[in-house]
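Ticket #4471: structure output looks truncated?

Reporter: J.K.
Steps to reproduce: submitted the chain below (314 residues) through the standard prediction queue, then opened the result file.
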Amino acid sequence: MGFNYSFDKDEPHTRLSAGNRRRSWFFAVLFTLLLLVLVLIFRPAQSSKNSGEAAANSAANSENSGNPGSEGSGAVNAAETKFSAEQEKLYNDAAAAIAAKDFLRGKQLAEMLVRHLEIGGTQWFSAVGLLNRANSGIVFNKVKCDKNVIYDVKSGDTFSRLSDKLNTTLYALWKINDLPEGSSDLKVGDKITCYKGDWSVEINKKAQAVCVMDGNELFLAYPAGFSSKNKIPAGEYSFPGSKKKQFAAGGDRRNHYGTRFMGFNNTSIGGIHGTWDAGDVRGEFNDGYIRMNNADVEMLFMLLPGGTKVKIVD
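Returned output as attached by the reporter:
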């Protein structure tokens, strides 16, 4: 039911004297001028704040074609995170650089921010979300840098042999070079681009984080949960290629391992897997081992070759 805002035309009105009318106009004009002054005073600060938040939101929401799991579901908007003024500036500058596809600059700024935050905290996951976007942007946009190598295909080369030479996976080679999965079409003289990472994984149970390392540098990090039933002890493991088991994306949801399962070399320990649960992966659960969001574990599956070392710490 709507409201009737019409006025009764026959309702009598009280007339003001000329003096009262002048005073009413004077106060009305004075009030308007004061209101304009207040708007002009506070508008720049508000505009600056909105500009910074817009840059952060733009980076968080911008599309990176072909970058599955690039940001990570653990990422938190800067507006929801209590950063210091200096940290917020770093965050917004990094977000703006990534939105402009200046991924190397975004990576540098995000690393500066992450370095001074406690691992596993809301601030840390927020900053890591930017680092994920920057590094995945470098990989999948083939940004010119020392780590992105261009390989000239030689006689006898296959994708399988190239993945061994370049310490990568078939899936990464296909994705980075815009080739369909399963492609075997290689010709002598073809140029194949690949990010040549020195990969290892560090899983921090206390921080509930899975960290992908490139040498000594944090490259990607995602939130993770740990089964209360199938507890995985701290120790050193690896991903043997023969033990990787891929589940098709969009597969049977009765499979509680989600879209990917990456088993460890010690088969009794289990491994890392996805989940169909739309809630926080860090929440308590029984079935499974180390769970991540499907998009995040898909990113790991794509980048990390068999033999990658995994260290789990309490």
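Triage note (M.O.): checked the attachment and the full token line is present. The chain is about 35% helix and 15% strand.
Status: closed, working as intended.
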